[in-house]
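User: Hi! Is it possible to get a structure for several chains at once, not just one? Here's what I have:
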Amino acid sequence: MMYTRHGPLGGPLRHLMIWLTIAFALFPFLWVLSASFNPTNALVAQGLIPEKASLVHYQELFINPYLPFPRWLWNSVKISGLSAFFVVFLTAFAAYAFSRFRFWGRRSGLLALMLIQMFPTSLAIVAFFLLLMRLGDYLPWLGLNTHAGLILVYMGGVLGFNTWLMKGYFDTIPHELEESAMIDGATPFQAFIRIILPLARPILAVIFILTFIGIYSEFLLASILLTGAEQYTLPVGLKLFITGEYARRWGDFAAASVLGALPIMVLFLLLQGQIISGLTRGALKG
Amino acid sequence: MWKRALMAVLGLAFLGLAGAQAQQAPTLTIWADEVRAPVLQQVATTFTNETGVNVQIELVPFGDIRPKFITSGPTGTPDLIIGPHDWVGELVANGLLEPLALGRLREDFVESALEGFTVGGRLYGLPYATEAIALIYNKDLVPTPPATFDELVSIAKRLTDPEKGQYGFLHNVWGPDPYHSFPYVTAYGGYIFGKDAQGRLNPCDVGLERGAPAYQLLLSLTDQGLVPRATGYGEMASTFEAGKAGMIVTGPWQIKSIRDKGINVGVAKLPLIEGRVPRPFVGAQGFMVNSSGANKPAALTFLFNFIATTGIMVDLFRRDPRPPAFKPALDDSAVRADPTLAVFVASVADGIPMPNIPQMSAVWGAWSDAITQIADKQATPQQALADAVTRIKASLQCPP
Amino acid sequence: MPSPASKRRSSARHKSTGEGIGLTDSLPTSLMIALLFKIIFLSVADSLGVWAAGTLAWQRNWGLLSALLVGLTLLNLALLSRRAYPLRYLLPGLVLFAAMTFYPIVYTINIAFTNYGTGHLMSKEEAISWYERRYYQPEEGETFSFQAFKDEQGQLKLLLTSQKTGRAYLAEGARLLPISLPDPRPSNWRSLSRSELVQALAALQQLELLYGEEDVVRMATLTEFAVFRPQYHYDRAHDLLTDLETGKIYRPIRGTFVSEEGEELLPGFYEYIGLENFYRIFSNPQITGPFLRVFQWTFLWATLSVLLTFALGLTLAIFLNDPYLKARRLYRSLLIIPYAIPGFISILVWAGLLNADFGIVNRILEDLLGLRLPWLNDPFWGKVALLLVNLWLGYPYMMIVSLGALQSIQPELYEAAYVDGASRWQQFRHVTFPILMISVAPLLIGSFAFNFNNFNVIYLLTGGGPPIAGAQTPAGATDILISYTYKLAFAGRQGAEYGFAAAITILIFLIVGTISAINFRLSRRLEKMGEAL
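Assistant: Yes, the chains can be modeled jointly so their relative placement is included. Here is the combined structure:
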C-alpha cells in the first residue's frame, strides 16, 4: 500500500485496532505472569494481582538441581538456532533451483513437497525413534538422546512449507538482475550468492524466525527422542512441573514460561529490522 | 595410496565407535518423575557404594514414562521404572515387564498393593505406596467432619457463598472425573468390571448403570448451587488451598501442597451415603523391572535389598505422604506421627483396586462423556450411563 | 518496470543459461579451484560410500544399503551431469526430506496393513525368542552362593556352592562340573577384587549354565545364582508353543498364541492382515455414522482458522509495515507474544480462563454485560472458544509471513497505481493482494492442512467435547477427524491399535491431499488473475 503521512484512517482508528489486538494477545500472558509471582500454585488465580507477590518461583528455577532450567533454556536456544540456521540455507538452495531452473519433475516435485508435508506423522513417532536408534549404531553422535540427531529430524520436518515460501519470494525478484550479472561472467551460483540472497534477506529472516519458534515449542519428538533432564529442551522440561500425577507446580511452570518466552522476544527484536529491510531494495535497481 | 589411508581413517570414524561399549561396568538406569527421583538419588548412592554398580536416575515427566517405555523398553533401557499399578496391564501385554518372585519378602507388603501389580497370577511390580481418596477438610471452617452425607450437605449449605468465592464442599466430579466420582457409584452398588468364576475381571460385565442414583444425588447438589458445574481438579485444589473451601475429596498426594499453604487440614473417611460405605479406587505405586534389561540381577538386588527397607520407604513417605505399602514402614514412628495416615489407610482398606487390564482404556472415555451429559442435563443419569455401557461393550467387541 | 507476467516469461530464457560452468579452453583460476574442489570432494565421498556400502552388504542391511546407493548416485549425477545441475541445489534438502518425512510415511503405510498395537508390538521371531527366554524359578528351587576367580591365564572362573545341598560346582563353558572340596584348583587362583567383579558383571549377568536336563543356573541377584526352568518350548516344525509348567499347548492365530480352550497368551506379535483395518473403518457404524457431521466441522474449523488468522495477521502486517506508524517496533514485539510461549502452555491457560464458573472471562462478561457463557460445555460456544484460541495462537505466524512477503512488492508499483488515482482499497485489491498471494497462497493451503489435523488444540481445550446426547459413539461436538479417530483407535478392545490408527491416518491424508490439490488449482487461477493485472 502507498503509505502516506496522514491517511484518512491513518490516525486513531488504526492505533485503536492495534491496541485491541495487543490486549487480546496479552490477556492470557498477563495471567501467566501473575501466576509466576503468586506463591500459591494456581495457574489461573482469582485475581490478576497476587496478594503476596514473591519471587520464589523464579528462585526455584535456578536452585533446583533436579530441574536444571537454565540448561533447558540453553539446549532449546542451541537446537532451535542451529536447526533454523541450516534450514534457511537448505531451503534457500532448494527454492532457488525451483524458482530459476526448469528441469524434469519440477512442478510435480514442488507439489509433492507440499502434499507429503501434509501427512499426519503423529503416529510415526516410533519411526523417528527407530531411525535415530539405527543411525546411532553407526554414528553414535547422531543417535538417540543426542541434540545433533534431534536437529536432523527437525530440519527434515520443516523443509517443505519453507521451500514454498521462499520460492514464492524468489519468483517476485526480477530475473534481469542475475542475468546482467551472468552476462558479466558470473556463474549461476555466484549470482545466487551475491545477488539473490542479499535481496531475499527479509524472507530469510522470516524463515529463520518461523523455524526457530516452531522448533522452540516442539514437544512430542523431543520428549520421545531425549532422555534425562540434562538433555531436555524447554517444553519437555516444563512438563516435569505439571505432570507430577496430581501435585502440579503451576507457579514454577509459569515462571519458566515467562523466562522461556524471552529468547523469542529478543530474537524478534533483533531480526525485525531484517524483515522490514526489503523496502530499501528499490534503490538497488538503476 | 593416500586415498586408501583416508578411507581407512574415515571408515574407523564412521563405524568404529559402534563396538566400543563392549566390556564396561554395567549401569542400572531408572526412570523416575521429579517427585521420586531425588529420594532415589540417596539410595542409589548407597547402592553404588555397597555393590560398585552405578545407578543412573533419569528424570522423565510422569505422563511420558509409560509411552516412552513402550518405545524404548525393548532396547533394554531403562532397567527400572516407577509408576502406578494401572500401567501394568498394557506393559505386560507388550511383554515389557519381568515377573518378580518376592519369596518371604511378600509378607511385608500390603496385600491390596500386591494385588494391583498382579496380572494373570504373577507379580510385576514392587509396590511402595497405596492411595485412595478421602474427605479433606479445613479445620478452621469445619471443626468436626461429617459422618453422613446429609451432614455434609448441611455444612456445605451453611458455608457456601459464591459471591465471596466461598464454598462449603467442592468436588471435581463434573470435571468430568470418573476416578473421583467412583466412591458414590459404589455406594449404590455400581461397579466397573464384574468377576468371572475364577475371580478374574470380566470386561464384558460392566455395572456402571447401577450407579445412576449417585449422579442424581450429585446433580441435586449442583442444582442447589453447592458443587459448581465447572469445578475441575485445579479449581478444587486451588480454592481449598486458598482457604476458600470447607471440604473437598481427593487423595494423599495433595496433602503436602495444602500444608505448604498453611491450611489447618484434617482428613476423614468419606461420609456414609444412606448408611452405605462409599468405596474409592485403590491405587498402588511401585517399581517395575524391564524384561529386556541386561541388568536384571542388579535391578532385583536394588529392589529387594535396598528399596524394600524401612529407611527408604519412610523417606519416600516423607517426600510424598501416601500410605506406605511396606508394613514395617507403616509401623515406623515418624510415619505414624502423620495424622492423615490412619485415615488414608482406612480408605485404602475400604476401597476397590482400580482394574489394571488394558480394557480400562475403553471405559474412561465413555464414562467421562456420560458424566458430562448428566451435568449438562442432556440425558438422565440412567440414560447416560446405559449409553456409556453400550458404547464400552461395543468398543470391547463384547457379544450383545 | 517488469510486471509479474513478464518476469515469468523471462524465466524461459534463463533455462539456456542454467549451466554456467563449462570446460572452456582457458578456465579462470576461481573455476579451476572450484573444479579441483569438486573432484576431491567427489572422490572422498565416493570411496567412503563404496566402503560403507560394502559393510552394509556384509551386514545384510538392504534397506540402508539401497538408500545409500540412491543417495550416492544422485550425488554423482548432481556434480558430474550438466542436465542434473539443479540437483546440486536440491540434493542436501532432498536427502533430509526423504529421511525425515518420507520414511515415517512409509512406516505408517506399512503398519496400516498389520495388527500392530498393544499386545502386538513384536515381530513373530521376536515374540518366539522372547518366550524362549522366559524362565521361572521352581518352588523350593536351588540357589547358589558364588565366588569369582581369575585363573593362571587370567580367565574368569566361577565357583558355585549350593545353599541347599552344600555341593560345590565349577562353571566350565556352559556347563556346571561338580567338584569335591577341598579342590586344589581354586587355591591357585586369585579371587576377584570388588571392582573387577563389577567389571565382570556384564558377562556374569548373561551367563547361562546347563543344569540337569532342561534347567539352567543363572544369576538371580548380585549375590546369588539360582536354578531357572524354561517356561516355554517352541516347536518350529509344527509352529506350536508349549507351556512346560502347565503342559498347555498354544498355536498362533492372528498374531496371538491361543490354547485349545481359547486362552490367549500375552504378548502376541504383529502380522500382516491385509486390508482388514480399512475394511473395519467402512463397516463400523461407530465410524461411518458420525463421519459426515465430524467431517463438516473439521472442514469448517480448518477453513475458518485459516481465514481468521490470515485476515488478522495480514491487517496487522499492513499496519506495521507503514514507516509512518508511530511505535511500530513496540507494537510488533508485543503482537508476537502469543507465538513466544509454547502452544501447550497457552492452551492450558486458556482452558482455565474460559472455565464457566471460575474463569476470568466469564467474570468479566458478567460484570460488563451480565451474562455467563458455557464456553467449553456447549456445542456452539465450544466451537467459538476453539476458534478464538486458535486465532490467538495462529495470527502471529500469519503476521510474520505477511510482513516478509510484503517486502517483495516494489514501491514503484504503488507509485504507478497512486499516479493512476487508485484508492487504497484498489491498491490493495489489485497490487498488494495478488502479489502477496504468489508467495503466501501455498502457505495458506499448508495452514489449512495443518489445522485439518490440529489435534493439540482440540485435545487440550475441549477434548472433543461436549459429548452428544444419546450418541452410541465417542464423537463429541467439537471432535475433528483426527481427534475422533484417535479416540477410536486408542480406546478400543485392547488399548492402542496402531495399525488401525495408521489406516485411518492414510484416509485422512487422502482427504486433505485431495482438498489441497483442489486448492492449488484454485490458487493458480488466482495468481494468473493477478498477473493479468
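The radius of gyration of chain A is 23 Å. DSSP finds twelve helices and no strands in chain A.

User: Great, thank you!
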